[in-house]
TrEMBL record, chain A:
Full protein name: ABC transporter permease
Bilayer topology term: Multi-pass membrane protein
GO cellular component annotations of the record: plasma membrane
Principal place of residence: membrane
InterPro entries, sorted: MetI-like, MetI-like_sf
A Pfam family reported for this protein in Swiss-Prot or TrEMBL: BPD_transp_1
Alphabetically ordered keywords of this record: Cell membrane, Membrane, Transmembrane, Transmembrane helix, Transport
Alphabetized PROSITE patterns for the sequence: ABC_TM1
Transmembrane parts of this sequence: 45-69, 106-128, 140-159, 197-215, 236-261, 290-311
Domain ABC transmembrane type-1 stretches: 101-312
GO biological process: transmembrane transport
Family per similarity comment: Belongs to the binding-protein-dependent transport system permease family.
UniProtKB/TrEMBL annotation, chain B:
SUPFAM superfamilies: MetI-like
Protein's recorded name: Sugar ABC transporter permease
Domain ABC transmembrane type-1: 70-260
Keywords assigned by UniProt, alphabetized: Cell membrane, Membrane, Transmembrane, Transmembrane helix, Transport
PANTHER family: ABC TRANSPORTER PERMEASE PROTEIN MG189-RELATED-RELATED, LACTOSE TRANSPORT SYSTEM PERMEASE PROTEIN LACG
Compartment(s): Cell membrane
Similarity field: Belongs to the binding-protein-dependent transport system permease family.
GO BP term, example: transmembrane transport
Annotated organism of origin: Cellulomonas xylanilytica
Highest rank taxon of the organism: Bacteria
First and last residue of the signal peptide: none
Amino acid sequence: MTTAPSGLSDPTTAAAQQSDAARTPRQPRGGAGRGTAWYRRLTPYYFLLIPVGLLLLLTFVPVLNMFWYSATDWDGLDKTKNVVGLDNYVEVFTDPDNVRVFYVSLYYFAASFLQMAIALYFATILSFRTRFRNMWKGILFFPYLINGVAIGLIFLNFLKPGGGIDTILMAAGLESLIQQWTGDPDIANFSLAGVSVWRYMGLNFVMFLGAIQSINPEIYEASDLDGANRWHQFRYIILPSIRPIIGLSLILAISGALSVFEVPFVMTGGANGTETFVIRTVWMAFNRNLVGLASAMAVVLLLIVLLVTWIQRKLIPEEEVDLT
Amino acid sequence: MIRTATTTAKYVSLVVASIVMLLPLGLILFGSFKTSQEFLSTGPMTLPADWGNIENYVTAFTRGNMLAAFGNTVFIFAMAIVGTILIGAATAYALDRFRFAGRTTVLALFLLATLVPGVTTQVATFQIINGLGLYDSRFALILIFMGTDIISIYIFLQFIRAIPKSLDEAAKIEGAGHLRIFFQIILPNLKPAIATVVIIKGIAIYNEFYLPFLYLPSKELRPISTTLFDFKGPYGSQWEIISAGVVITIIPILVLFLFLQRYIYNGFTSGATK
């Protein structure tokens, strides 16, 4: 934090070197202070002190606290917390309003398959020679970089009565298809899941494209000689080589479907049957002060994500994550 | 014959997808240049009468607090990114260059933490931030951004392996201590990793809504996301002003994207696969 990366000189030895302006090799400083064995052995701990401290403080302590709160009726303010056992968990799975949020997440989960299919299609066609390739790639990816609040507002504008989508349907003579896109409880979740596809497709697409482009081009050439067509190349070369990344996307899709927050929060505030897991948890914890119950919700979400990740690691053994 | 047909289908699908991607953005752009009268009386597809009408942008900036919001976002980003880089690099340095008791435990803790989605733990993190007296302070966000970014640590771990150990050894023989090796050998050689982290983290912080929404209720402390969210209230029916706010929010990201495309693609693909 204090040393600027400007040469190797140091005030204590600078005086000794001043006659010989530039760089005489410095003697190792044995003995006192920093050279001693105990200091050396402690060095990695000094470097890890703050990172591990923050990791414990901001990830592990909250997780443990969450388990503890979830067994109490705490309101977030009281000095005392009454242990209520598994009551909160019973409420999570029996109160129809709570169960609904699991059901809502299924819309987003289903939409993520559509999203991956579209992404795979465009990644495949753009991996072959295409005119203006970078332009298409940029257009498909850019929505992913846009602020979630901005996306919510863009689509409120687009889907509101008399907005963009209605105008298009009118122009095409399809007035009968016009809906209350975010107002009708039967439609709203489809609209919001559609926005989610619009937003996240680009990330899947770029990940798939990256994986496809890392395939050795000679494999295609060899398959051309063997008379393979595009479908064969997709089926037997592209698909197997991007399997791991599809597995990863699937995991992200499940945890993503359960942690949807911004777009429905901005567009409907959770009204019209669009309340998601996170919207409901936030509302419980911070508007209704039901910290115990909200913690139980959060624990359930965490356990689902852990379970899904564990299943994925079992199904698809991956070599990518090697840490040591 | 079949080749031509498939080629045509391919370009048609690309054009259709591009329209789907760009149309909602285009309508917001049109709307942002319309007067409030015009917005109500013309269709969303109608081009604005006067492309030079920047009144909505002026309103968004002055009465919508967007200038202060950019200041807050930049402040939070600058502090958090320095912290993230130092924490990520220090962790990677300790884990890659030293063998010590507890090393595998630390690795396992970081690995486990990647599985915990941040949105799930905020109910309990909130109590800690509150206990530290950081509620309604920008440092709450700074602390969370730098303290929970495991992806950056992974990126640094990957890059630090490529720095030859002989560089450290040489510096050690010259009498450099570990702090000096860290700041003068490791950090400068981690520049590509730092660039990646700055880009991914920068976009993530710029777009973050949940954390400022929870921790920064004060109007004058709000970053871009929550400031823009505020437009929904007072300007609820003034879509031309909301549109201008949205365009103002998108422009910095668009400029960044146009100039740094390659790095952004690489950053997200490497970040996503950890």
